[in-house]
Amino acid sequence: MSFIAAVLILNLDTADAFIAFANLLNKPCQRGIFTLYSKSFPLDLACRVWDVFCRDGEEFLFRTALGVLRLYQDVLTAMDFIHMAQFLTRLPDLIPPEQLFQHIAAVHMTSRNRKWAQVLQTLTEQKKSGARLSGAEALS
Length: 140
Description:
Blueprint: H1 2-11, H2 14-25, H3 31-40, H4 43-56, H5 58-71, H6 73-77, H7 81-89, H8 97-105, E1 110-111, E2 114-115, H9 116-139
Antiparallel strand pairs: 1-2
Signal peptide: 1-17
Pfam families: RabGAP-TBC (PF00566)
Keywords: Signal
């Protein structure tokens, strides 16, 4: 996570970097994804991904993962699981940004004709209602 903080400090004043970092930490399900992109992408590409993420939201992080898989699908399908994991942990230093962003743009995230934001909102509401139900059960 320190790498993410460093990128924020490089691009924002101290107070804004702190606020942005605190906001990122308030989304625990995405902490692993933040670290993944920060450490596996070259710095300039990681910064571009974070810029678009800040503009477009969580969906972009998942589209980026699928874009990476599409970009390297020929290489990955020729590898065994261990080598795939090693490859995806540290991607090549010369990732062609234009090609990556073309693959990302080609990803359309829908589920049963619903956009990603709608699916995420439904899951969040279900989680909240489940938590309230659990709390109510504990009181009875």
